[in-house]
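Here is the promised in-class demo. Please do not try to memorize the tokens; focus on the logic of going from shape to residues.
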């Protein structure tokens, strides 16, 4: 019996791996999906409808155990007693950094990857992002324009389901939306106040909208599976979603791929490196370690899609060997591992709306907030830094924090604590970090993970542009809250978030038209080895201000179309 050769091997089963598996299998290819972690059983692994009193540590988790096994992962808001099992064990998955430059590398290794606990905010990028370098001179333009990606945004949105409002803003293109979730009273008040302020200062880009989120408010437009249900607003998204209301590859793209009969999913397959064919110089397969048995295996394919997450995909390339024995492949440009980015946080403001009526608390578990897209440095430079930022936030009634501000004591005081809940409002900035060559990753061969694979050394530092931006984020947020009538405003002008804290790490294998300056071409195909594609966040040229996952999937869809054409034409 001959060795099986797949048409495509997809490494990773998260947002991009799931989409690649679906699209390639639906186009008739024989696809192998390798996932480094275990299969997920929702009945066993989801704690969506558990109340705190159902859990030994009331939802917070065993802090001593978390600090010992997950000191990095537990810095993420979702790594608690409900969902810590969706995050890696830091003892088994180490990495290194310079002593004075920390990086928070938040990871999930299981079928579905981080789509089981992501924030679900889904925004399109625009030519303000793709052609940013032409506007301000920093870095490189992307090798694609918005029009190249628009039909693939459409394709992805129709399948995953994104709820939102059309705003007709050039810096935030509208998508194909399901009905939006409702804003709260405080958010509507903010919207009216901020947009009146925008008219007064003559800024047509300043707008408050409901978050665009990959959570169903009705069935998706492409409901071929017919298994996902509209959100019932339980508010427990990061614990897993039994109804499949939020998008995860576990409940959507992977089932779609597997039902074709042409996709095979192998779990607990920790990919170490890509193997090259000595005759052709192209990739012939991948080498992986079985996470359970520690057996070493090799599988073969006509093309490889790296969808393991930006840093893991780059780690695989760095750990592979070229035919002449040199370490690393797809790196004739010398930029593999460089230009690592994340979103900048740490600037914002909060306050209260004292004129909104305080009523008995009613929170409906809406899995969403509000969004203010970038509105600075667009048509002209109006800030003392390059690029810009947007805000995410929300307004609701506090549960008990207001009690310290109430006068009195006794029965009347207790009644007011129970019945009066002031409306808080907060805005937090998401800023664009510039691509710097010196922000990079490399292999550290002195340290290996639990599977014997060299770990990454991650070296990232934010610079003057980011320092100026985070201050402006806070001060401008306060101006917007004040314009909307908020009181008791407190401003955060930093400190800047630790790199990685935004959990939007991207770059390190960027796209480009010039093979001397980039790793991938405009179709995410490696310049050096044409049957390797990288379609996760590693391909990013610049990060913009929008949450990136929707763009990752659209880029993957476009690359899949191209790869299938190339394969059928005999060029792969």
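The designed amino acids, position by position:
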């Amino acid at each position: 019996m001959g060795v099986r050769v797949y048409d495509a091997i997809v490494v990773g089963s998260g947002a991009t791996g799931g989409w690649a598996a679906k699209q390639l299998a639906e186009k008739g290819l024989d696809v192998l999906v390798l996932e480094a972690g275990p299969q997920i059983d929702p009945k066993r692994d989801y704690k969506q409808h558990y109340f705190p009193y159902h859990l030994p540590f009331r939802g917070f988790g065993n802090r001593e155990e978390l600090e010992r096994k997950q000191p990095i992962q537990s810095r993420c808001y979702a790594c608690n007693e409900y969902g810590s099992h969706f995050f890696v064990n830091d003892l088994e998955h180490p990495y290194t950094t310079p002593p004075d430059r920390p990086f928070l590398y938040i990871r999930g290794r299981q079928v579905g990857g981080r789509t089981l606990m992501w924030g679900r905010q889904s925004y399109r990028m625009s030519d303000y992002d793709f052609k940013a370098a032409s506007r301000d001179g920093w870095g490189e333009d992307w090798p694609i324009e918005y029009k190249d990606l628009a039909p693939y945004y459409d394709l992805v949105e129709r399948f995953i389901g994104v709820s939102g409002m059309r705003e007709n803003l050039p810096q935030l293109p509208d998508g194909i939306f399901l009905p939006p979730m409702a804003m709260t009273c405080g958010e509507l008040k903010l919207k009216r106040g901020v947009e009146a302020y925008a008219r007064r200062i003559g800024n047509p880009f300043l707008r408050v909208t409901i978050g665009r989120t990959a959570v169903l408010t009705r069935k998706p437009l492409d409901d071929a599976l017919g298994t996902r249900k509209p959100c019932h607003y339980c508010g427990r998204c990061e614990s897993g979603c039994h109804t499949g209301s939020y998008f995860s590859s576990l409940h959507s793209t992977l089932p779609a791929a597997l039902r074709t009969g042409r996709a095979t999913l192998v779990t607990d397959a920790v990919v170490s490196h890509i193997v090259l064919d000595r005759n052709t110089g192209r990739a012939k397969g991948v080498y992986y370690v079985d996470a359970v048995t520690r057996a070493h295996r090799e599988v073969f394919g006509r093309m490889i899609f790296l969808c393991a997450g930006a840093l893991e995909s780059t780690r695989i390339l760095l750990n592979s060997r070229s035919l002449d024995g040199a370490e690393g492949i797809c790196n004739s440009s010398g930029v593999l591992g460089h230009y690592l980015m994340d979103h900048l946080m740490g600037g914002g403001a909060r306050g209260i709306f004292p004129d909104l009526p305080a009523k008995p608390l009613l929170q409906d578990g809406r899995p969403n907030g509000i969004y203010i897209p970038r509105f600075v440095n667009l048509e002209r430079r109006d800030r003392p830094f390059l690029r810009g930022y947007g805000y995410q936030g929300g307004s609701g009634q506090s549960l008990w924090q207001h009690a310290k501000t109430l006068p009195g004591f006794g029965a009347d005081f207790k009644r007011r604590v129970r019945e009066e809940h002031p409306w808080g409002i907060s805005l937090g900035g998401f800023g664009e970090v510039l691509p710097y060559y010196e922000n990079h990753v490399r292999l550290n061969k002195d340290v290996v993970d639990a599977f014997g694979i060299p770990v990454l050394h991650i070296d990232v530092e934010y610079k003057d542009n980011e320092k100026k931006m985070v201050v402006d984020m806070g001060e401008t947020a306060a101006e917007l809250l004040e314009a909307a009538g908020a009181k008791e405003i407190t401003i955060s002008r930093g400190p800047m978030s630790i790199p990685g804290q935004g959990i939007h790490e991207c770059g390190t294998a960027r796209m480009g038209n010039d093979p001397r300056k980039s790793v991938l071409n405009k179709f995410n195909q490696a310049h050096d080895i044409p049957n390797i594609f990288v379609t996760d966040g590693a391909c990013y040229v610049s990060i913009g201000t929008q949450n990136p996952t929707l763009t990752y999937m659209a880029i993957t869809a476009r690359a899949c179309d191209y790869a299938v054409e190339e394969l059928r034409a005999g060029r792969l």
